[in-house]
Design goal:
0% of the residues are buried. By secondary structure, this protein is mainly α.
């Protein structure tokens, strides 16, 4: 939209919209904006948690490899574990 790049035009468009729309339409638009914001928040949260799970999975694999290495070292040196 042309108003997105021009703050003055955006403000004017919002003023015209507010003066010409009835309360029900404004409420529906507000609810829609809230729903979009909530959906974007949820998507970001899901992505952040997915990234964290991936990182933890990689760390877990590294730790499992380290444990295997240490167990082999114990076995190679005849140490009971």
């Amino acid at each position: 939209m042309i108003t997105q790049k021009n703050p003055s035009m955006n403000s004017t468009a919002e003023t015209i919209f507010m003066s010409n729309s009835d309360e029900n339409i404004r409420e529906l638009c507000r609810r829609r904006e809230d729903a979009i914001a909530h959906e974007n928040y949820q998507k970001k949260l899901i992505q952040d948690l997915t990234d964290e799970v991936s990182t933890l999975t990689d760390e877990n694999a590294s730790l499992a490899d380290e444990i295997s290495r240490l167990i082999k070292l114990l076995d190679d040196n005849g140490i009971n574990h």
